[in-house]
Every structure is written in structure tokens, then in C-alpha cells.
């Protein structure tokens, strides 16, 4: 994806460091990966973190292997082949109308489902019934997401349109990061709406009864 404007909102250093060291959960990795595809600045910062991580690994004292390590490895070689994975939808087959991030390649992507007035979501398979959730969100122009807070960090990468949250405007290529406990109520651009790739760690907590009602039905 080629952008014609500078990216002004990025994941913070803690998120990028976790990405570099492999400790960031898969849902958030997919969103950060999407951001890195469009953001040279974050790719550069990530390179610095990866270099630091490499130095830290080299500085660690070697750890002795368990006495049965070889036997356990050999046992896995004798184990039967796991069944082939079920066929999955690919981003190329997903009728989104926009270019999907390469970070979603190979991920199963569900169909758009009505979630709330003017809002549809598409779940990333395998990342819905877990603590970490990843999904695409499509909001019609001028739609307000129900007021909510959440247990963990929420990341939203803008793929189309624009989003306004906490008086900040996020456009294509931007990554909106909301910290745990932040109560917020983003709304989509009044002219274009928006499509975002979102990762949430933990539960969201709608502040209003309408949001709680919706949550009962869609388990977000
Ligand atoms: Zn960035």
C-alpha cells in the first residue's frame, strides 16, 4: 500500500519491543505487522529493537539441556503426521474492496456480520474465542462506536477512511493505541466511514446498556 501522507500515529515503543522479542500476542502481531507494512519510521525503530534483542540473547549464559531432551526430540520424529489444516479463506478471496495487509496472509477471515447500527465486523478465525481477539471493523460514515473500556491494550490500524478518537484523527496507515482502562467512544469519519484491523487483549466493557446488550449477542 502506497500512502500519500505521512503517518502520524504509531504503536508505542513497548509494543514494538514486544513485537521484536516475539512476546507480543498473535492478534496484536497481526495489527503491528499491518502497520509496519506502511510505516518506514516504525520499521526503522523495530530494527533498533531487534538489534538490542540480539545483543541481549548473546549476553545470556548458555543453559544446559535436560537429560531426556534428545529422547523427546526423537519421539516427536516418530509421532504420526498431524492432519492437514482445513482450507482457509485468504485475503485475496475476501470481498473487502480494499487491499488487505500482508500480515493477514494465511489467516482465516470471516464474513462481515452486523454488529450494531452502521457497524459490521469480520472475525479473524482462531482469534475470537481466546483472550486475544482480532477482527476487521467496518463503520459507515459518521457512526459512533459504543462507549467502552477494556482490560488490555487495544490497537486499531486504519485501512480505509478515517477515525476520530479522544479528539485525535486517525487516517489510513495510522495505528490508534488505547491503553487498558481508557474509556473511549471513537467515531468514524462523517464522509468516508472507516475500515480498521483491531486487536484487543481481554474483554471490552461497554458503558451503556445498548452496548452491553450488543455484547451479549456478539460476544465481543
Ligand atoms: Zn509507525
TrEMBL record:
CDD domains: cupin_ChrR. InterPro entries: Anti-sigma_ChrR, Anti_sigma_zinc_sf, ChrR-like_cupin_dom, RmlC-like_jellyroll, RmlC_Cupin_sf, Znf_put. Signal peptide: none annotated. Residues 18-43 form the Putative zinc-finger domain. Pfam families: Cupin_7 (PF12973), zf-HC2 (PF13490). Residues 111-198 form the ChrR-like cupin domain. This is Transcriptional regulator. The gene is chrR.
